[in-house]
Structures are given as C-alpha cells and as structure tokens.
Amino acid sequence: MALTQEMIDLLAAGVAHQVGGCTNSGRPVVCRGMAAQHEAGMLVIIVSAESGFEVLDAIRQNGQIAVNVTLPANFRSMSFVGSDAVVRGGGAAYRPLVTARHAAFRAQLDAYGFPPDYTNAWYTPPDSDLVAIRFTPTSARNQTPGPGAGNAVELKPVDLER
Amino acid sequence: MSAGFQDGLTLFGVRRMMEGVVPPVLATASAARVPNVSYLSLAEYVDPLHIALSYQFLNRSRENVLATRRASLTLDDPYTGAGVVMQLEYVRTETAGPVFERLRAKLMGVASHAGMADVFHLRGADIYHVLELRRVPGRREFPGAQPRVDLAVNSRLLSERMANCAELADLLDTLLVGLGELLHIDHAMLWLFEGSQQVLTLLASRGYDFDGAGAEISVGEGIVGTAVREGVPIRVGHMMNMATYARAARDRADAQGIAPAARAEIRLPGLKEPRSQIAVPLRARGRVLGALLAESGHDQFFGYDDEDALMMLCGQFAVAMSLLQPQDPEPPPAATPPAAAAVPVDSSRALRLRRFARDNSLFLDDVYLIRGVAGAILWKLVNEFLRSGRREFSNRELRLAPELRLPDVQDNLEVRLLLLQRRLTEQNAPLRLEKAGRGRLLLAVNRPIVLEQGDS
Prior knowledge:
The complex is a heterodimer. Chain A is an alpha+beta fold. Chain A has 4 helices and 9 strands. Chain A has one domain: Pnp Oxidase, Chain A (Roll). Chain A has helices at about 5-10, 55-60, 95-110, 120-125; strands at about 15-20, 30-40, 40-50, 65-70, 75-80, 85-90, 130-135, 140, 150-155. Chain A is globular, with a radius of gyration of 15 Å. The two termini of chain A are about 15 Å apart. Chain B contains 10 helices and 20 strands. Chain B has 3 domains: about 10-135, Electron Transport, Fmn-binding Protein, Chain A (Pnp Oxidase, Chain A); about 150-255 and about 265-325, GAF domain (Beta-Lactamase); about 345-455, Winged helix-like DNA-binding domain superfamily/Winged helix DNA-binding domain (Arc Repressor Mutant, subunit A, Orthogonal Bundle), CATH 1.10.10.10. By secondary structure, chain B is α+β, with helices and mostly antiparallel strands. Classes of the chains: A alpha+beta, B alpha+beta. The interface between A and B is large, with 59 and 58 residues.
C-alpha cells in the first residue's frame, strides 16, 4: 500500500517525527526522527544512529516499525506501521532532505516561542550519523489526540508512477 | 535510585521535562510486538521510582499497555533540547487521590480554556514503575536560560515586606507590587473565593489596563478557577501549545459526535495572549480562600522554583489576610443623626441604587456595581443611612447583623469591605466607604439616594 497525497503533503509540512519499534523480547523503544519522505510506495525515515540506537537494533531484529508524524500547528498526527523495515546507511545523501524538513519544523515551532536554534539539538548530527530506515506502510492510524486515536486510516494501492 | 538509572539521573531531576511543553511521547507494542507511538498530555512526578501518565482516551496505547504492561517514554527538556528515555512497567490506574487530583487539575485548567472541560477529562492516572532512565545520546544541547532573579533571596525580601503590613489594603498592594519589583512578575491578579456563590471575585490586579475589581468567574473556570477547586497550583508554560492540543482533541470529539455543540472559548482574563500562566491557591486554616493568578507574555516563564516560591508567599498572604481583621471596639454612643436624612430628595438628580435580592447584586443608575456579600453590606449601610442619617458604622455590627446572615461573612469581612471600597472608587460613585478608625467605617454620600428593589 502507499500513502495518499494528503499524507505525502503532511510529511513536508514541518512535522515532528517519532519512530517506534519493539525488540523480540517485547521491549518497546522510541527515538526522534529528522525527516521522512515517500519513495516509490515506501516510506523512508531518517534518524541519528547515535540517538536512535535502540530503535535501530529492534528494527534489525524483526522489521517492525511505527512512525508518527505530528504537525505542531494543529496537532494533526498520523502513524504509519510496517513490518518489513530495513536499516540502510543514509549519510550525506540525505542531508538536503534533513535540512529542508528541519527548516519547516523550525518555522512551526517559532509560533510557540522556541528559539530558532533550539531544535539544532535534534537535527545536527554529523552526516556519518544519518541512517535511513525504509519500509512499506501496511497501515496508517490517525493519532490526532482525542477519542479514537490509533484508529486505522485507509491507504491507497501502490502507485508505481510516484 | 534504581540500578537502571544512568549515573547522575533522577526522576526528580527531570521533572521539568514532564510539563508537556514538548509533549511526552509514549511507545507501546501489542502482544505480537507491533509498535505504536503517540503523544500524551501530561506526565507527573510521583516519587523517585514512579511517574504518572494521563489516561484520557481508550486508544491503541491503552490496549497495548494493558496487554503487555510495558512502555517506553521519551521526554525533551523545553530549555535545552536534551532528552531522556525511560522504560516503564505499568503498575495501576488511580482514579482518586493526590496524584490523580494534580493531573486532573492541570488538565482541566487547560481544557476549560478550549471549551473542552466536558470531553477532555481525565479517566485515570496511570502509575508506572520506572525501570530504566537514560539520556538520549548525541544531542547538541541549547544553552539553558539563566534564572531571571534569585528567587530564594527575593522571596524572603517580599515575605519580610508583607510581615510588616498592618492593614489589609497595604498587604494586597505589597504583594502585587513586590511580585513585580522583586520577582519580575508584572501581571498578576488576586481572586477571592465566594463560597456561598461558588464564584471567584477579582479583588485586585496589577499590570493591566484596568483593575477589574469585582469581576467574577466560576469555580472551575480557567486555571485559576481550577486551582481553587482542587486546592493545588497549576502552571502552563506554553499556552498556545496546550491550547492547540486541547483544540485538536475537541475537533476529534466533535467529528465523532461526542462533544456538545461548539461553544465559544472562555476568554482568558488579563493579557490578551498570555504565553505562560500560574495559578496558586491562597490556603489558610485548611481552606482555600482564593488564588493568585500570574501571567507572562513569554513562554515557559514560570518554573518549578516559581511555583515553590509563590506557594510559600501565597500561604503567608492567606494567613495574614485571615488575621488582619481589626479588633472591634465597643459600639459608640448613638450619634445625633446628621441632617442628611431629612433633606428632601430631588428625584431628578438622585442616585438610584437598585438591588436584586436573589444574589444581592447592586446597580448604580443601571450600572452594575457588585453583588454577593459586598452587595448585601452596602445595601444595609445605605438603608440605615437613609433611615436614621447615621454615617458611621462598626465592623462588629456588620458581623452581628441578622439581615446579612451570610455564612462566610465572618471569615473575611475586611476583604469584602476592601473590595467594596475599591469598586466604589473605580466606578467614581457618588458614595464612598472610608476608614473611620480601627474597625469603623464612614459612609460618604454626596448625592441624594433613592432605593429600588429590582426583583420585587
């Protein structure tokens, strides 16, 4: 399955990213992501290998993943779930994407009074630390706070043209 | 400290990350190890090994926790961008008690601003044992903000100033002025709890375009009304952030037909767009007498240290307010009534004082003045003046007046009189209440008065 255009637009709107996994021993783990984009029916999420080591270990064990993206302006929140996640070195190739997503996210937080440099703490690992996780979303959930958070949202069939 | 805690880390030490400025993120997994990630409203420090998380909605996180009893929580420092991650084991859900009440008070204080008080409620406080606590590695932290004042030293100075006050009016002004001068809190209001009417009445304010004395809100309304109802301090560091979260939840509830019809949001008192607020109850003799509400146009202005300092200062203020009731002198010999009562009233220029008995609300020439205990007192004084011409009254006779018969009038009569005085002054009314010595009042009238019953 693939993402709808609305979901793809959300990824570029300045969202915060959270990446979750679960080890084979049942230990839930979570880390902050820096950027996400849709690539030919798959979702690619960029994380720091250093800060996200637990999540990367869990994904290497079983491929299970949940990625949450939330837009600070209205707390619109969406999760994408997959079971075929793989960890690939990302490196400098993903720096432009991270920089663009960081700028959009920073603009969102500006309205809340966070200094522009505040989010540098999360977005400035060295290129060698950037890691890409790639997976096929099998389901999506609306995580906007409130009753029904976590309910499924329909994905659309894979569009290989994208 | 637990063996699973990274060196130097304690739950108490990371409590400022639990404010919800950067919302906490909870990761759970199903029994089949399918992960789920979601945001929470609030996390709360419980003790060195336990935290509480707000349980508001039945959702997938909740299902997972009940199935596996495991979760991971990540928190970000709102000042530096540093982060911590915890491994949690679910222990129990509390639906009463101090932890639940603290979480509920914080949540309701925010939700009431967004008209969500009926839907955005707390079902329980989920108590978790913190198995592991570690820093998120690899973050380039932003330098934290320096404290704006030395809170301990300056709070002591303010406490000493208040200790020297012998009059209630002086005490009020000393607190509000001192908050600005010594703690750099430039916008503050003191609210008085009217138990008989279940409302809060604004006693005094500082840092606004108008004083607003006599304004009212309901108990439970906004963070100040919630702080009074629950008797706990409430602090919101990023009003926009929390309001947005609450609005998102309301929109979801509306979409599912759960919420009542959309209502106008309650306008925040004071600053048009406050970025931070703190409400601290005024507690004395085991009761809540009112609350201080302080605001700032800056995000994250009030920290835990401010909360601690204001709790101490407000406690002192509340006790002093209770004690500053003058000893009543013996009633003076009946004075010869002045001629005022005998003057024929020219109704064309007379001041019309209208009263609605159901709530003792008073209007001066159709302009609302005050209601409740203060309204009943003024009505009595003016009636007596018109009947006998007497202008001077003692606090004691007011306390003993059978027609007042209001249960809490004895608690802080002096405060009601002060409120009445300020309200009359603010309205530039042609009648005033003035001090006439210890425990005595003088009613000054410079226009004829006619009385009307509004609901007879």
